[in-house]
Amino acid sequence: MRILIIQSRPAKDSMITQELACIERRLGDRRVTTVPHNAVTEDARTDWLDGVDGVVFGGSGEYSVHHPLSRRWVTPLRGVLDAIFDRELPCFGICFGHQLVGLHLGAPVITDPDREEVGTVQLRLTWEGRHDPLFKDLGEVFSAHTGHSDHVVGLPPGVALLATGQGCTTQAFKVIDRPIYTTQFHPELSGAE
Predict the structure, then answer these.
(1) Distance (Å, rounded) from C-alpha 26 to C-alpha 80?
(2) CB 89 within 8 A of CB 52
């Protein structure tokens, strides 16, 4: 299995290697080859999807999906998302990836320092989350690691809310008719990481 990892980080960001290593550790001992690309330092293209079985959109660190200076690389990423939807490729968006999918589907994304979350937070599964095959074993209330000041406001159409939190109500959702999941929190991180 080949998994495309799309990162959105400056070229010298030390988190590039850490994020990739964390995602690879979470894949465990499965026979997976990761194919990393960085949308900030490369031009995002739909041919990145050729020959891959799934896609993970990672975090971004300092970038916002809605900031005008990010448009030069967010716009091509939205073209990649269109192709993911068309091909019905499995996709998982983490933090920035969650915000990108939310924005792409029509939900506002804002920067709100009053709702910033950094560290470990308590989250709650919704009814849909408690019945979702990917989320149901987390328990109705679970701890997750997070670090963001941007968040998706409300739900875009065509998604099911899976997890919510006190500071950020849209912590996870799934696109109803596609194998596309997103989380505002960071499931790739362990407590130590």
Answers:
(1) 24
(2) yes
- Nearest-angstrom CA–CA distance, 123 and 141: 6
Lookup: tokens for 191: 């407590």
CA distance 85 to 77: 12
Question: Does 186 qualify as catalytic in the annotation?
Answer: yes
User: Using an 8 Å Cβ cutoff, are 123 and 165 in contact?
Assistant: yes
Give Cα separations from 11 to 38, 56, 68, 114 (angstroms): 8, 19, 20, 29
Q: How many CB atoms lie within 10 A of CB 12?
A: 7
Question: Whole-model pTM?
Answer: 0.92
Write out pLDDT tens, residues 70-108: 899 999 999 999 999 999 999 999 989 999 999 999 999
The tokens for 75 are: 């716009």
Q: Which of 98, 104, 148, 186 is catalytic?
A: 186
**How many whole angstroms separate alpha carbon 106 and alpha carbon 39?**
21
Name the residue with tokens 């679970």.
142
Among candidate residues 19, 95, 104, 151, the one labeled active-site is: 95
Active-site annotation holder among 19, 117, 128, 188? 188
Angle subtended at Cα 17 by Cα 14 and Cα 22, rounded to the nearest 5 degrees: 120
As a whole number of angstroms, the distance between CA 103 and CA 121 comes to: 24
